[in-house]
């Protein structure tokens, strides 16, 4: 993750939560009163969020000491204490909820991604995410996907061209849409075309797309159509694919399978924080 961007976003998250002051902590504890908290897993999964913990607490207390026993992508087991933070009590209490919310969600995404990779069980096809992320949390969620063994798709509308069905309808054809893009973007920008028929596959190949996405196609359709695509063009399967039917796509030969469910319907990993006494 971009640490400068991470710091900026965490500052905004803390401002949202703390507002003008933390009435609870500031009225109970002195400014210099010290304490210690621990993070522990209440379920098995994949941890993600080491930078969130390190940078988050340092923003609230420059002298905070964080001890992490895990790295992003490591497995954590139920009951495992994986992080300890020492610092000013008020700062620890002000930061715990924001940090916890983020690492729970990120770890849930990493865990679900690892499950998808395991189910697919392919040495060739990779699992990738989509733009179906939580507004404001895309960097966090896409980082979590990589921690679970997946790869990232485009980060937004700005870093790659994806020509979808509506683009094709407005442009008149795949050929016309690709030609217009080629005339205006540089050689470093990839062009992906979404296809729904065999005729569209052939047209996308002729138009020299960089990536062809088989949209809402069955495994059998993909296996047949992929024979029409030269090795120089990457292929993607997307739409209608979930953890329940993912295994059926393992031998289609596509380069990547994109799953919106990795980020938009994820269950947060159960993680908790408690005070360390003695």
Lateral strand order in the biggest sheet: 6-11-10-9-8-7
- The structural class is alpha/beta
Task: Give the CATH class of the largest domain.
Answer: Alpha Beta
The CATH homologous superfamily of the largest domain corresponds to Aldolase class I
Distance between the termini: 35 Å
- How many domains, in number, for the residues? 2
Order of helices and strands: HHEEHEEEHEHEHHEHEHEEHE
Give the biggest sheet: 6 strands, parallel
Given the C-alpha coordinates, what overall shape results?
A: elongated
Give the helix level as a range of percent: 25-40%
On the 0-100 scale, what is the average pLDDT?
A: 97
Low-confidence segments, given as residue ranges, are: none
CATH topology of the largest domain: TIM Barrel
Protein architecture, described:
The protein has 278 residues and is an alpha/beta fold. The chain folds into two domains: 3-116 and 267-275, Aldehyde Oxidoreductase, domain 3, CATH 3.90.1170; 122-264, Aldolase class I (TIM Barrel, Alpha-Beta Barrel), CATH 3.20.20. 40% of the residues lie in helices and 19% in strands. It has helices at residues 3-18, 23-28, 50-60, 89-120, 138-147, 165-171, 174-182, 198-206, 219-225, 261-264; strands at 34-41, 45-46, 65-68, 75-76, 81-88, 126-128, 161-163, 191-195, 211-215, 234-238, 256-258, 271-275. The chain has a six-stranded parallel beta sheet. A four-stranded antiparallel beta sheet has the order 3-5-1-12, covered by helices on one side. Strand 9 (211-215), helix 9 and strand 10 form a beta-alpha-beta unit. Helix 1 (3-18) packs across helix 3 (50-60), helix 3 packs antiparallel against helix 4 (89-120) and helix 4 crosses helix 5. The two termini are 35 Å apart. The model has no long low-confidence stretch (mean pLDDT 97).
């Amino acid at each position: 993750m971009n640490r400068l961007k991470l710091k900026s976003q965490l500052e905004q998250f803390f401002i949202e939560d703390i507002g003008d002051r933390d009435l609870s902590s500031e009225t109970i504890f002195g400014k210099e009163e010290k304490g210690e908290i621990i993070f522990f897993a209440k379920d098995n999964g994949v941890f993600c969020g080491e930078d969130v913990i390190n940078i988050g607490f340092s923003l609230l207390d420059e002298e905070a000491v964080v001890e992490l026993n895990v790295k992003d992508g490591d497995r954590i087991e139920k009951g495992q204490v994986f992080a300890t933070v020492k610092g000013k009590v008020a700062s620890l209490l002000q930061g715990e909820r924001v940090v916890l919310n983020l690492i729970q969600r990120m770890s849930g995404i990493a865990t679900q991604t690892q499950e998808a990779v395991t189910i697919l069980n392919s040495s060739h096809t990779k699992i990738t995410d989509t733009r179906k992320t939580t507004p404001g949390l895309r960097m966090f969620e896409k980082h979590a996907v990589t921690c679970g063994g997946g790869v990232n798709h485009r980060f937004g509308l700005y870093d790659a061209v994806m020509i979808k069905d509506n683009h094709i309808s407005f442009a008149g054809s795949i050929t016309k849409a690709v030609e217009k893009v080629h005339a205006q973007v540089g050689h470093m920008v990839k062009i992906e075309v979404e296809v729904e028929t065999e005729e569209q596959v052939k047209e996308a190949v002729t138009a020299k797309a960089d990536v062809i996405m088989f949209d809402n196609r069955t495994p059998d359709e993909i296996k047949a159509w992929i024979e029409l695509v030269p090795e120089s063009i990457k292929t993607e399967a997307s739409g209608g694919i979930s953890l329940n039917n993912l295994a059926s796509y393992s031998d289609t030969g596509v380069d990547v399978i994109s799953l919106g469910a990795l980020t938009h319907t994820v269950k947060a990993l159960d993680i908790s924080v408690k005070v360390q006494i003695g």
